[in-house]
Write a structure and sequence with these properties.
The structure holds 2 protein chains of 2 kinds. By secondary structure, chain A is of the alpha+beta class. Helices cover about 20% and strands about 45% of the residues of chain A. Chain A has helices at about 1-35, 85-95, 185-190, 195-200; strands spanning about 40-50, 55, 60-65, 70-75, 80, 100-110, 110-120, 125-135, 140-150, 150-160, 170-175, 210-220. Chain B has one domain (about 1-275). Chain B has 10 helices and 3 strands; from the N terminus they run ααβαααααββααα. In chain B, a hairpin with a 2-residue loop joins β2 and β3 (about 155-160). In chain B, α7 runs antiparallel to α8 (about 165-195). Classes of the chains: A alpha+beta, B mainly alpha. The interface of A and B includes residues 75 and 83 of A.
Amino acid sequence: MRFLLLGSLLLWSLAPVFGQDNAEQLVRSVYAKMRSVKSYEADMRIDADIPMLRMQKVEGKLLFKQPDKLDIKSKSLAVLPKQGFADFGKFISDTSSFTAVFSGEEKLGGVLTRMVQVLPANSKGDLILAKLWIDPLRKLVMRSELTYRSSGTVLVDYTYGSQQQYALPDQLRFTMDVRNMKIPKAMTADLHKKRDQEADKGKDPNRPAVILVKLSNYKVN
Amino acid sequence: MFLQAVYTEFIKIAAKPRSYLGLAAITVLVGVILFAMKIDGLTYISFITAGLEESLLFEGDILNGNLMAFIILQMLIIHIPLLVALVTGDLISGEAAMGSLRMLATRPVTRSQILMGKFTAGALYTLLIVLWLGLMALGASNLLFGPGDLMVLNSDGLVVLQQGDVLWRYLSGFGVAYLALLTIATLSITLSCFSDNSIGPIVTTMAVIILFTIIGTLDVPVFDAIRPYLFTTHMAAWRSFFEDPVPYDAIVESAIILLAHIGVFLSIALYHFNRKDILS
Protein backbone atom coordinates (compact mmCIF):
# COMPACT_ATOMS: atom_id res chain seq x y z
CA MET A 1 0.00 0.00 0.00
CA ARG A 2 2.88 2.32 0.96
CA PHE A 3 4.62 1.52 -2.37
CA LEU A 4 1.39 2.15 -4.28
CA LEU A 5 1.01 5.59 -2.63
CA LEU A 6 4.65 6.43 -3.25
CA GLY A 7 4.34 5.31 -6.88
CA SER A 8 1.21 7.44 -7.37
CA LEU A 9 2.93 10.49 -5.89
CA LEU A 10 5.93 9.97 -8.17
CA LEU A 11 3.73 9.67 -11.25
CA TRP A 12 1.72 12.75 -10.20
CA SER A 13 4.90 14.81 -9.76
CA LEU A 14 6.22 13.72 -13.15
CA ALA A 15 2.92 14.34 -14.97
CA PRO A 16 3.68 17.95 -15.91
CA VAL A 17 7.00 16.88 -17.42
CA PHE A 18 5.30 14.30 -19.65
CA GLY A 19 2.52 16.81 -20.32
CA GLN A 20 5.11 19.38 -21.27
CA ASP A 21 6.82 16.95 -23.65
CA ASN A 22 3.53 16.09 -25.31
CA ALA A 23 2.39 19.71 -25.52
CA GLU A 24 5.67 20.81 -27.05
CA GLN A 25 5.48 17.89 -29.45
CA LEU A 26 1.98 18.98 -30.47
CA VAL A 27 3.11 22.58 -31.01
CA ARG A 28 6.09 21.30 -33.00
CA SER A 29 3.84 19.16 -35.18
CA VAL A 30 1.57 22.15 -35.81
CA TYR A 31 4.58 24.24 -36.79
CA ALA A 32 5.90 21.44 -39.04
CA LYS A 33 2.60 21.60 -40.93
CA MET A 34 2.85 25.38 -41.20
CA ARG A 35 6.49 25.07 -42.27
CA SER A 36 5.58 22.73 -45.16
CA VAL A 37 4.64 25.81 -47.16
CA LYS A 38 7.64 27.87 -48.24
CA SER A 39 5.61 30.77 -49.52
CA TYR A 40 2.08 31.56 -50.58
CA GLU A 41 -0.11 34.29 -51.90
CA ALA A 42 -3.83 34.74 -51.55
CA ASP A 43 -6.60 37.21 -52.26
CA MET A 44 -7.52 39.05 -49.10
CA ARG A 45 -10.64 40.86 -47.93
CA ILE A 46 -10.50 42.85 -44.71
CA ASP A 47 -13.60 43.88 -42.81
CA ALA A 48 -12.72 45.95 -39.75
CA ASP A 49 -14.96 47.08 -36.92
CA ILE A 50 -12.74 49.32 -34.83
CA PRO A 51 -13.91 51.90 -32.29
CA MET A 52 -13.04 55.45 -33.38
CA LEU A 53 -12.21 54.25 -36.89
CA ARG A 54 -14.73 53.78 -39.66
CA MET A 55 -13.65 52.26 -42.94
CA GLN A 56 -15.05 50.35 -45.86
CA LYS A 57 -14.12 46.76 -46.72
CA VAL A 58 -10.67 46.51 -48.26
CA GLU A 59 -9.52 44.03 -50.87
CA GLY A 60 -5.94 43.16 -51.66
CA LYS A 61 -3.34 40.45 -51.94
CA LEU A 62 -1.45 38.77 -49.14
CA LEU A 63 2.05 37.46 -49.82
CA PHE A 64 3.90 35.35 -47.27
CA LYS A 65 7.39 33.91 -47.24
CA GLN A 66 8.85 31.78 -44.46
CA PRO A 67 9.63 32.39 -41.72
CA ASP A 68 7.74 35.66 -41.16
CA LYS A 69 7.90 37.87 -44.26
CA LEU A 70 4.43 39.24 -44.76
CA ASP A 71 3.55 41.67 -47.51
CA ILE A 72 0.19 43.21 -48.27
CA LYS A 73 -0.60 44.68 -51.65
CA SER A 74 -3.71 46.79 -51.82
CA LYS A 75 -4.82 49.91 -53.65
CA SER A 76 -6.64 50.94 -50.50
CA LEU A 77 -5.46 51.79 -47.03
CA ALA A 78 -5.61 48.53 -45.07
CA VAL A 79 -5.68 48.06 -41.31
CA LEU A 80 -4.36 44.87 -39.77
CA PRO A 81 -3.45 43.79 -36.26
CA LYS A 82 0.11 44.80 -35.46
CA GLN A 83 0.73 41.48 -33.78
CA GLY A 84 -0.62 37.98 -34.03
CA PHE A 85 -0.37 37.58 -37.79
CA ALA A 86 3.05 36.24 -38.78
CA ASP A 87 5.11 36.84 -35.65
CA PHE A 88 3.70 33.83 -33.81
CA GLY A 89 4.93 31.37 -36.44
CA LYS A 90 8.43 32.75 -36.06
CA PHE A 91 8.19 32.47 -32.28
CA ILE A 92 7.29 28.77 -32.25
CA SER A 93 9.85 27.97 -34.96
CA ASP A 94 12.56 27.87 -32.30
CA THR A 95 11.60 25.03 -29.95
CA SER A 96 14.10 26.17 -27.34
CA SER A 97 12.44 29.58 -27.09
CA PHE A 98 9.33 28.41 -25.24
CA THR A 99 7.84 25.98 -22.79
CA ALA A 100 4.45 24.45 -23.55
CA VAL A 101 2.01 22.74 -21.19
CA PHE A 102 -1.48 21.37 -21.63
CA SER A 103 -4.15 23.27 -19.76
CA GLY A 104 -7.31 21.38 -20.66
CA GLU A 105 -9.73 20.61 -23.46
CA GLU A 106 -12.47 22.67 -25.06
CA LYS A 107 -14.93 22.20 -27.91
CA LEU A 108 -14.72 24.93 -30.54
CA GLY A 109 -17.29 24.83 -33.30
CA GLY A 110 -17.87 21.11 -32.75
CA VAL A 111 -14.14 20.32 -32.76
CA LEU A 112 -12.53 19.01 -29.57
CA THR A 113 -9.35 20.98 -29.03
CA ARG A 114 -6.43 20.67 -26.62
CA MET A 115 -5.54 23.89 -24.85
CA VAL A 116 -1.83 24.56 -24.69
CA GLN A 117 -0.18 27.35 -22.75
CA VAL A 118 3.06 28.51 -24.34
CA LEU A 119 5.45 30.46 -22.16
CA PRO A 120 8.41 32.21 -23.78
CA ALA A 121 11.82 31.37 -22.35
CA ASN A 122 12.89 35.00 -22.73
CA SER A 123 10.91 36.89 -20.10
CA LYS A 124 11.92 40.26 -21.56
CA GLY A 125 10.32 39.70 -24.98
CA ASP A 126 7.12 41.40 -26.13
CA LEU A 127 5.10 38.16 -26.09
CA ILE A 128 4.28 37.28 -22.49
CA LEU A 129 1.94 34.32 -22.92
CA ALA A 130 0.29 32.39 -25.72
CA LYS A 131 -2.73 30.15 -25.29
CA LEU A 132 -3.46 27.83 -28.16
CA TRP A 133 -6.53 25.75 -28.90
CA ILE A 134 -5.20 22.97 -31.11
CA ASP A 135 -7.13 20.33 -33.01
CA PRO A 136 -4.84 17.34 -32.25
CA LEU A 137 -6.20 15.21 -35.10
CA ARG A 138 -5.71 17.73 -37.91
CA LYS A 139 -2.78 19.49 -36.19
CA LEU A 140 -4.42 22.87 -36.66
CA VAL A 141 -4.57 25.90 -34.39
CA MET A 142 -8.25 26.72 -34.05
CA ARG A 143 -7.83 29.67 -31.73
CA SER A 144 -4.96 31.58 -30.20
CA GLU A 145 -4.85 34.14 -27.43
CA LEU A 146 -1.61 36.06 -27.51
CA THR A 147 -0.73 38.44 -24.70
CA TYR A 148 1.81 41.13 -25.57
CA ARG A 149 3.59 43.50 -23.25
CA SER A 150 3.10 46.43 -25.64
CA SER A 151 -0.41 46.00 -26.98
CA GLY A 152 -2.36 43.68 -24.68
CA THR A 153 -4.22 40.56 -25.75
CA VAL A 154 -5.02 39.53 -29.31
CA LEU A 155 -7.56 36.73 -29.76
CA VAL A 156 -7.49 35.01 -33.14
CA ASP A 157 -10.13 32.56 -34.36
CA TYR A 158 -9.16 30.45 -37.38
CA THR A 159 -11.52 28.88 -39.91
CA TYR A 160 -10.07 26.35 -42.34
CA GLY A 161 -11.24 25.22 -45.73
CA SER A 162 -9.56 24.01 -48.89
CA GLN A 163 -5.98 24.63 -47.70
CA GLN A 164 -6.17 22.99 -44.28
CA GLN A 165 -3.55 20.42 -45.28
CA TYR A 166 -1.08 23.34 -45.24
CA ALA A 167 -2.59 24.89 -42.09
CA LEU A 168 -3.65 27.90 -44.16
CA PRO A 169 -6.94 29.39 -42.94
CA ASP A 170 -9.78 30.72 -45.07
CA GLN A 171 -10.68 33.20 -42.38
CA LEU A 172 -9.01 34.86 -39.42
CA ARG A 173 -10.97 36.80 -36.86
CA PHE A 174 -8.86 39.08 -34.70
CA THR A 175 -10.31 40.56 -31.51
CA MET A 176 -8.27 43.05 -29.53
CA ASP A 177 -8.47 46.12 -27.36
CA VAL A 178 -7.41 49.42 -28.89
CA ARG A 179 -6.64 52.55 -26.97
CA ASN A 180 -9.25 55.25 -27.41
CA MET A 181 -8.07 58.51 -28.84
CA LYS A 182 -9.50 61.93 -28.22
CA ILE A 183 -9.04 64.35 -31.06
CA PRO A 184 -9.42 68.00 -30.03
CA LYS A 185 -12.31 69.70 -31.84
CA ALA A 186 -10.04 72.63 -32.68
CA MET A 187 -7.75 70.27 -34.58
CA THR A 188 -10.56 68.94 -36.70
CA ALA A 189 -12.34 72.30 -37.14
CA ASP A 190 -15.39 70.32 -36.03
CA LEU A 191 -16.38 73.04 -33.59
CA HIS A 192 -20.13 72.77 -33.77
CA LYS A 193 -20.55 69.03 -33.63
CA LYS A 194 -22.33 67.95 -30.50
CA ARG A 195 -23.36 64.37 -31.08
CA ASP A 196 -21.22 61.29 -31.00
CA GLN A 197 -21.78 59.28 -34.18
CA GLU A 198 -20.77 55.98 -32.57
CA ALA A 199 -23.23 56.54 -29.74
CA ASP A 200 -25.89 57.47 -32.30
CA LYS A 201 -25.54 54.05 -33.89
CA GLY A 202 -25.88 52.31 -30.53
CA LYS A 203 -22.29 51.08 -30.64
CA ASP A 204 -20.20 50.96 -27.50
CA PRO A 205 -17.11 53.13 -28.06
CA ASN A 206 -15.22 50.93 -25.58
CA ARG A 207 -15.94 47.70 -27.45
CA PRO A 208 -12.97 45.62 -28.62
CA ALA A 209 -11.77 45.96 -32.19
CA VAL A 210 -12.67 43.10 -34.52
CA ILE A 211 -10.83 42.55 -37.79
CA LEU A 212 -12.08 39.83 -40.11
CA VAL A 213 -9.60 38.70 -42.75
CA LYS A 214 -10.94 36.40 -45.46
CA LEU A 215 -8.41 34.62 -47.65
CA SER A 216 -9.12 32.90 -50.94
CA ASN A 217 -7.49 31.79 -54.22
CA TYR A 218 -4.36 30.51 -52.51
CA LYS A 219 -1.25 29.94 -54.59
CA VAL A 220 0.94 27.72 -52.45
CA ASN A 221 4.63 27.01 -53.08
CA MET B 1 -27.92 96.03 -69.32
CA PHE B 2 -27.66 93.95 -66.15
CA LEU B 3 -24.92 91.77 -67.65
CA GLN B 4 -23.07 94.92 -68.67
CA ALA B 5 -23.34 96.14 -65.06
CA VAL B 6 -21.98 92.81 -63.78
CA TYR B 7 -19.12 92.93 -66.29
CA THR B 8 -18.25 96.50 -65.30
CA GLU B 9 -18.29 95.61 -61.62
CA PHE B 10 -16.12 92.57 -62.19
CA ILE B 11 -13.60 94.68 -64.13
CA LYS B 12 -13.56 97.11 -61.17
CA ILE B 13 -12.80 94.20 -58.82
CA ALA B 14 -10.09 92.94 -61.17
CA ALA B 15 -8.50 96.38 -61.34
CA LYS B 16 -8.01 96.61 -57.57
CA PRO B 17 -4.73 95.20 -56.23
CA ARG B 18 -6.45 93.98 -53.03
CA SER B 19 -8.47 91.52 -55.13
CA TYR B 20 -5.27 89.57 -55.78
CA LEU B 21 -4.35 89.47 -52.10
CA GLY B 22 -6.73 86.57 -51.54
CA LEU B 23 -5.35 84.53 -54.42
CA ALA B 24 -1.76 85.28 -53.39
CA ALA B 25 -2.46 84.47 -49.74
CA ILE B 26 -4.03 81.10 -50.68
CA THR B 27 -1.04 80.27 -52.90
CA VAL B 28 1.50 81.12 -50.18
CA LEU B 29 -0.45 79.39 -47.39
CA VAL B 30 -0.95 76.20 -49.41
CA GLY B 31 2.77 76.26 -50.27
CA VAL B 32 3.75 76.66 -46.62
CA ILE B 33 1.42 73.85 -45.46
CA LEU B 34 2.60 71.46 -48.19
CA PHE B 35 6.25 72.23 -47.44
CA ALA B 36 5.73 71.63 -43.71
CA MET B 37 3.83 68.39 -44.35
CA LYS B 38 6.41 67.09 -46.80
CA ILE B 39 9.12 67.60 -44.18
CA ASP B 40 7.28 66.65 -41.00
CA GLY B 41 3.86 65.30 -42.02
CA LEU B 42 4.35 61.84 -40.53
CA THR B 43 4.91 63.32 -37.07
CA TYR B 44 1.68 65.32 -37.45
CA ILE B 45 -0.25 62.21 -38.48
CA SER B 46 1.29 59.95 -35.82
CA PHE B 47 0.13 62.40 -33.16
CA ILE B 48 -3.41 61.41 -34.12
CA THR B 49 -2.95 57.73 -34.93
CA ALA B 50 -0.44 56.88 -32.15
CA GLY B 51 -3.13 55.33 -29.93
CA LEU B 52 -4.38 53.04 -32.70
CA GLU B 53 -0.90 52.18 -33.94
CA GLU B 54 -0.09 50.50 -30.63
CA SER B 55 -2.28 47.59 -31.73
CA LEU B 56 -2.93 48.20 -35.42
CA LEU B 57 -0.81 48.35 -38.51
CA PHE B 58 -1.73 50.75 -41.33
CA GLU B 59 -0.72 49.39 -44.73
CA GLY B 60 -0.54 52.08 -47.41
CA ASP B 61 0.26 55.78 -47.57
CA ILE B 62 -1.79 57.72 -45.05
CA LEU B 63 0.07 60.90 -45.94
CA ASN B 64 -1.22 61.41 -49.48
CA GLY B 65 -2.57 64.20 -51.66
CA ASN B 66 -6.19 63.71 -50.62
CA LEU B 67 -5.37 63.99 -46.92
CA MET B 68 -3.22 67.05 -47.60
CA ALA B 69 -6.10 68.69 -49.49
CA PHE B 70 -8.42 68.02 -46.56
CA ILE B 71 -5.96 69.42 -44.00
CA ILE B 72 -5.44 72.52 -46.17
CA LEU B 73 -9.17 73.07 -46.55
CA GLN B 74 -9.95 72.76 -42.87
CA MET B 75 -7.05 75.04 -41.98
CA LEU B 76 -7.87 77.72 -44.54
CA ILE B 77 -11.64 77.68 -44.80
CA ILE B 78 -11.78 79.48 -41.41
CA HIS B 79 -9.60 82.31 -42.72
CA ILE B 80 -10.99 82.64 -46.25
CA PRO B 81 -13.97 84.81 -45.11
CA LEU B 82 -11.51 87.61 -44.35
CA LEU B 83 -10.10 87.40 -47.88
CA VAL B 84 -13.61 87.52 -49.35
CA ALA B 85 -14.83 90.36 -47.11
CA LEU B 86 -11.72 92.35 -47.99
CA VAL B 87 -13.09 92.71 -51.53
CA THR B 88 -16.87 92.45 -51.18
CA GLY B 89 -17.02 94.77 -48.14
CA ASP B 90 -15.62 97.50 -50.33
CA LEU B 91 -18.04 97.18 -53.25
CA ILE B 92 -20.50 99.94 -52.21
CA SER B 93 -18.65 101.78 -49.44
CA GLY B 94 -15.51 102.00 -51.60
CA GLU B 95 -17.47 103.85 -54.28
CA ALA B 96 -19.00 106.08 -51.60
CA ALA B 97 -15.55 106.85 -50.21
CA MET B 98 -14.19 107.70 -53.67
CA GLY B 99 -17.24 109.81 -54.51
CA SER B 100 -18.21 107.75 -57.55
CA LEU B 101 -21.41 106.24 -56.14
CA ARG B 102 -23.49 109.32 -56.98
CA MET B 103 -22.25 109.30 -60.56
CA LEU B 104 -22.98 105.56 -60.78
CA ALA B 105 -26.55 106.21 -59.67
CA THR B 106 -27.07 108.68 -62.52
CA ARG B 107 -26.58 105.91 -65.11
CA PRO B 108 -29.74 104.54 -66.79
CA VAL B 109 -29.96 101.54 -64.47
CA THR B 110 -32.05 101.12 -61.35
CA ARG B 111 -30.40 101.11 -57.94
CA SER B 112 -31.50 97.50 -57.53
CA GLN B 113 -29.68 96.63 -60.76
CA ILE B 114 -26.56 98.43 -59.52
CA LEU B 115 -26.64 96.49 -56.25
CA MET B 116 -27.44 93.17 -57.93
CA GLY B 117 -24.64 93.79 -60.42
CA LYS B 118 -22.21 94.33 -57.56
CA PHE B 119 -23.58 91.30 -55.72
CA THR B 120 -23.19 89.06 -58.80
CA ALA B 121 -19.65 90.33 -59.40
CA GLY B 122 -18.87 89.68 -55.72
CA ALA B 123 -20.36 86.20 -56.05
CA LEU B 124 -18.16 85.54 -59.09
CA TYR B 125 -15.10 86.73 -57.19
CA THR B 126 -16.01 84.42 -54.28
CA LEU B 127 -16.38 81.55 -56.74
CA LEU B 128 -12.94 82.36 -58.13
CA ILE B 129 -11.48 82.22 -54.61
CA VAL B 130 -13.12 78.84 -53.92
CA LEU B 131 -12.00 77.44 -57.29
CA TRP B 132 -8.44 78.63 -56.70
CA LEU B 133 -8.45 77.14 -53.21
CA GLY B 134 -9.78 73.87 -54.61
CA LEU B 135 -7.24 73.80 -57.42
CA MET B 136 -4.36 74.57 -55.10
CA ALA B 137 -5.49 72.19 -52.36
CA LEU B 138 -6.39 69.21 -54.54
CA GLY B 139 -4.11 69.80 -57.54
CA ALA B 140 -0.89 70.77 -55.80
CA SER B 141 -1.35 68.21 -53.00
CA ASN B 142 -1.95 65.32 -55.38
CA LEU B 143 0.93 66.43 -57.55
CA LEU B 144 3.32 66.51 -54.61
CA PHE B 145 2.06 63.61 -52.48
CA GLY B 146 0.22 61.42 -54.98
CA PRO B 147 -3.33 60.09 -54.65
CA GLY B 148 -4.56 57.67 -52.00
CA ASP B 149 -7.32 56.83 -49.54
CA LEU B 150 -8.44 59.73 -47.40
CA MET B 151 -8.26 59.45 -43.64
CA VAL B 152 -10.52 62.15 -42.25
CA LEU B 153 -10.04 63.45 -38.74
CA ASN B 154 -13.36 63.95 -36.98
CA SER B 155 -13.74 64.86 -33.33
CA ASP B 156 -15.33 61.44 -32.73
CA GLY B 157 -12.76 59.39 -34.60
CA LEU B 158 -11.27 58.63 -37.96
CA VAL B 159 -13.09 57.83 -41.19
CA VAL B 160 -11.19 56.17 -44.03
CA LEU B 161 -12.65 56.90 -47.47
CA GLN B 162 -11.43 55.04 -50.51
CA GLN B 163 -9.67 57.01 -53.24
CA GLY B 164 -12.43 56.49 -55.80
CA ASP B 165 -15.01 57.76 -53.34
CA VAL B 166 -13.32 61.08 -52.61
CA LEU B 167 -13.53 63.42 -55.62
CA TRP B 168 -17.33 63.81 -55.60
CA ARG B 169 -17.15 64.58 -51.89
CA TYR B 170 -14.63 67.34 -52.54
CA LEU B 171 -16.72 68.81 -55.37
CA SER B 172 -19.89 68.74 -53.25
CA GLY B 173 -17.96 70.09 -50.26
CA PHE B 174 -16.68 73.00 -52.37
CA GLY B 175 -20.29 73.72 -53.36
CA VAL B 176 -21.40 74.03 -49.72
CA ALA B 177 -18.23 75.95 -48.79
CA TYR B 178 -19.06 78.36 -51.63
CA LEU B 179 -22.53 78.87 -50.20
CA ALA B 180 -21.01 79.66 -46.80
CA LEU B 181 -18.57 82.16 -48.31
CA LEU B 182 -21.36 83.71 -50.38
CA THR B 183 -23.21 84.33 -47.11
CA ILE B 184 -20.14 86.21 -45.85
CA ALA B 185 -19.90 88.13 -49.13
CA THR B 186 -23.60 89.10 -48.92
CA LEU B 187 -23.24 90.19 -45.29
CA SER B 188 -20.27 92.39 -46.12
CA ILE B 189 -22.07 93.91 -49.17
CA THR B 190 -25.07 94.63 -46.93
CA LEU B 191 -22.87 96.30 -44.32
CA SER B 192 -21.14 98.13 -47.15
CA CYS B 193 -24.48 99.79 -48.02
CA PHE B 194 -24.56 101.36 -44.56
CA SER B 195 -21.05 102.78 -44.64
CA ASP B 196 -19.10 105.44 -46.49
CA ASN B 197 -15.66 103.95 -45.85
CA SER B 198 -14.13 100.58 -46.76
CA ILE B 199 -12.68 99.53 -43.43
CA GLY B 200 -15.97 99.63 -41.48
CA PRO B 201 -17.85 96.85 -43.34
CA ILE B 202 -14.78 94.59 -43.53
CA VAL B 203 -14.02 94.87 -39.81
CA THR B 204 -17.72 94.57 -38.87
CA THR B 205 -18.08 91.42 -41.00
CA MET B 206 -15.13 89.81 -39.23
CA ALA B 207 -16.46 90.95 -35.84
CA VAL B 208 -19.83 89.33 -36.59
CA ILE B 209 -18.11 86.08 -37.65
CA ILE B 210 -15.98 86.03 -34.49
CA LEU B 211 -18.97 86.83 -32.25
CA PHE B 212 -21.21 84.18 -33.83
CA THR B 213 -18.39 81.59 -33.77
CA ILE B 214 -17.82 82.20 -30.05
CA ILE B 215 -21.55 81.93 -29.35
CA GLY B 216 -21.64 78.72 -31.39
CA THR B 217 -18.67 77.21 -29.61
CA LEU B 218 -19.69 78.13 -26.07
CA ASP B 219 -21.36 75.04 -24.68
CA VAL B 220 -23.85 77.07 -22.63
CA PRO B 221 -27.60 76.19 -22.68
CA VAL B 222 -28.64 79.85 -22.96
CA PHE B 223 -27.43 79.88 -26.60
CA ASP B 224 -28.98 76.51 -27.52
CA ALA B 225 -32.05 78.12 -29.08
CA ILE B 226 -30.19 80.47 -31.40
CA ARG B 227 -27.11 78.35 -32.18
CA PRO B 228 -28.75 76.31 -34.99
CA TYR B 229 -29.76 79.52 -36.80
CA LEU B 230 -26.37 81.25 -36.79
CA PHE B 231 -24.77 81.09 -40.23
CA THR B 232 -21.38 80.39 -38.64
CA THR B 233 -22.77 77.11 -37.27
CA HIS B 234 -23.25 75.96 -40.86
CA MET B 235 -19.99 77.24 -42.33
CA ALA B 236 -18.29 73.90 -41.66
CA ALA B 237 -21.15 71.95 -43.31
CA TRP B 238 -18.79 71.06 -46.20
CA ARG B 239 -17.07 68.61 -43.82
CA SER B 240 -20.27 66.56 -43.60
CA PHE B 241 -19.58 65.22 -47.10
CA PHE B 242 -16.57 63.43 -45.59
CA GLU B 243 -18.63 61.45 -43.10
CA ASP B 244 -19.75 57.90 -43.74
CA PRO B 245 -22.70 57.72 -44.24
CA VAL B 246 -23.18 61.28 -45.50
CA PRO B 247 -25.76 63.13 -43.33
CA TYR B 248 -27.73 64.59 -46.25
CA ASP B 249 -30.51 65.92 -43.99
CA ALA B 250 -28.03 68.01 -42.00
CA ILE B 251 -26.39 69.28 -45.21
CA VAL B 252 -29.73 70.30 -46.75
CA GLU B 253 -30.67 72.03 -43.47
CA SER B 254 -27.36 73.92 -43.50
CA ALA B 255 -27.82 74.90 -47.16
CA ILE B 256 -31.35 76.19 -46.46
CA ILE B 257 -30.15 78.26 -43.48
CA LEU B 258 -27.25 79.70 -45.49
CA LEU B 259 -29.56 80.52 -48.43
CA ALA B 260 -32.05 82.12 -46.02
CA HIS B 261 -29.27 84.33 -44.64
CA ILE B 262 -28.26 85.32 -48.17
CA GLY B 263 -31.89 86.19 -48.93
CA VAL B 264 -32.36 88.22 -45.73
CA PHE B 265 -29.04 90.10 -46.09
CA LEU B 266 -29.74 90.87 -49.76
CA SER B 267 -33.27 92.10 -48.97
CA ILE B 268 -31.93 94.44 -46.26
CA ALA B 269 -29.25 95.69 -48.67
CA LEU B 270 -31.80 96.30 -51.47
CA TYR B 271 -34.23 98.04 -49.11
CA HIS B 272 -31.57 100.33 -47.68
CA PHE B 273 -29.71 101.03 -50.93
CA ASN B 274 -32.93 102.00 -52.75
CA ARG B 275 -33.71 104.54 -50.02
CA LYS B 276 -30.15 105.64 -49.33
CA ASP B 277 -29.49 109.34 -49.52
CA ILE B 278 -26.37 109.38 -51.68
CA LEU B 279 -24.54 112.59 -50.90
CA SER B 280 -21.11 111.84 -52.37
